[in-house]
Write a structure and sequence with these properties.
With 170 residues, the protein is mostly helical. Helices cover 75% and strands 0% of the residues. The chain has seven helices and no strands.
């Protein structure tokens, strides 16, 4: 059994990680509209770095960075509450994995920072492993009812017909 001081140190580390990720994602989310505003490059596309190409893409519209920033802020806030922490970890992981992939492909220097925050989120999930296991068990619990093969078959045929007509209409 863990001693009281080990529990306190563990709890302190847990909250340091939560606050580090939360405050950082809050700052990144709030700064997102400013980060990509008015980015201009006077080179042709074949002479641009990956960084330039990505920044031009994000700065093309104010709306896209605002939406990304909103989800980063939402994840940062939800991370602070026990009831929403797992959801926040998944939301922020979706954001960070996307950032990690883009940073890697476009050779953005902030790649290591994104990886760092993703590792911290994995540590939060490790601290909350009992709650995470419970959620996974509920999500993947076997369905007690018989699978409605006929209903799903009819729905599949209708969905395929709708898809066929969609390609003819649009």
């Amino acid at each position: 059994m863990m001693s009281i001081s080990k529990l306190k140190i563990s709890h302190l580390i847990y909250w340091i990680i939560i606050l580090t990720v939360s405050v950082s994602m809050l700052v990144y989310g709030l700064a997102k509209p400013l980060q990509f505003s008015d980015y201009k490059v006077d080179k042709t596309l074949d002479k641009m770095s990956g960084h330039d190409i990505m920044w031009i893409f994000y700065s093309y519209s104010k709306t896209y960075p605002i939406i990304l920033g909103f989800f980063e802020v939402m994840g940062a806030v939800l991370l602070l509450f026990s009831r929403t922490r797992i959801f926040a970890c998944f939301l922020l992981s979706a954001m960070l994995i996307n950032i990690i992939i883009q940073d890697y492909i476009y050779e953005i220097l902030a790649l290591s920072t994104a990886i760092y925050y993703q590792v911290l989120i994995i540590l939060i999930l490790c601290f909350d492993s009992a709650k995470l296991k419970e959620i996974i068990c509920v999500l993947f619990a076997p369905d007690k009812k018989n699978f409605p093969f006929i209903t799903v078959g009819i729905a599949l045929v209708i969905a395929l017909l709708l898809k066929f007509f969609e390609t003819k209409i649009f």
